[in-house]
User: Fold this.
Amino acid sequence: MTLFDSRRRPLRDLRISVTDRCNFRCTYCMPKEIFGPDHAFLQREELLSYEEIARLARIFVAHGVEKIRLTGGEPLVRRDLDHLVVQLRAIPGLKDLTLTTNGSLLKAQARGLKDAGLERITVSLDSLDDAVFQSMNDVGVPVAVVLGGIEAAAAVGLSPIKINAVVKKGVNDHTIVDLARHFKGSGHIVRFIEFMDVGATNGWRMDHVVTGSEIVEMINAELPIEPVEANYRGEVARRWRYADGTGEIGVITSISEPFCGDCTRARLSPEGELYTCLFGVRGHDFRALLRAGKSDEEIAAFLSSVWRVRDDRYSEIRSEDTVGLRKVEMSHIGG
Ligand code: SF4
Assistant:
């Protein structure tokens, strides 16, 4: 039975953050000044176990979820992630199982994830320019490492691969056409993401945003593109295909063209808090129910009570007053 929220949006997508840790310090997500050596990350016993995650996922799938995306932090830093993939892959009714990674650990893990049942993968790569990329990940990891991960994922059949690039004015906007050109004709899809006021620590300002239409204009000037229909309701990226038929790109426009009307996404944090919006300020505690020995029916009833009253539409109401809210960090619940 599918759950619908107060705006008749079905619960379809569950993003599961398996860790709040990451081996990168991307300036727009996990700035080093905040997430330094003394930052208190979650301890192992605070994290949901893979069995707890799989049990919750089964309940969510029974109430409409068709797609699960594993995220973080960086999901590949959590040990034996393929063990979780096996459990999730076995859930009847789950149509799509994917994962978002920074790609730095992918070369070693691609085969294991594929064999465990992962179908697709999204890799974050903000620029091909090494100096720019390293200044954005802020830990000095070179582009070649991530390209090696993408190659390994493609080689084991985790494709087509989506490549996510956050575009920040004056930082990497001058390199986005090169990124598009590099993957043009490869079958992989680059999605350019407007810089967002996620969390409360990335120093977001509107004048750092390159809008979707500016991104399209920059690419179209050198690589002609045309708009394409969405694949399904609630698809996050707006699709553009190359006029010469050699593939497509996507643009994610949370700032300039919000898409809350079709938002079917819920996000589970590593310690079992459910957020009904990326820009949420409060989560709903499912771990307490799991560890109190509640039945599946009781947990499902709680899920229903949370989703039915959901009316999130943050991107539609974003203003100077909302930007400063103590929103949950994207590094905690995934993008
Ligand atoms: S701002 Fe919130 S409600 Fe709107 S699309 Fe993003 S996650 Fe969904």
User: Anything to note?
Assistant: DSSP finds twelve helices and twelve strands in the chain. The chain has one domain: 13-333.
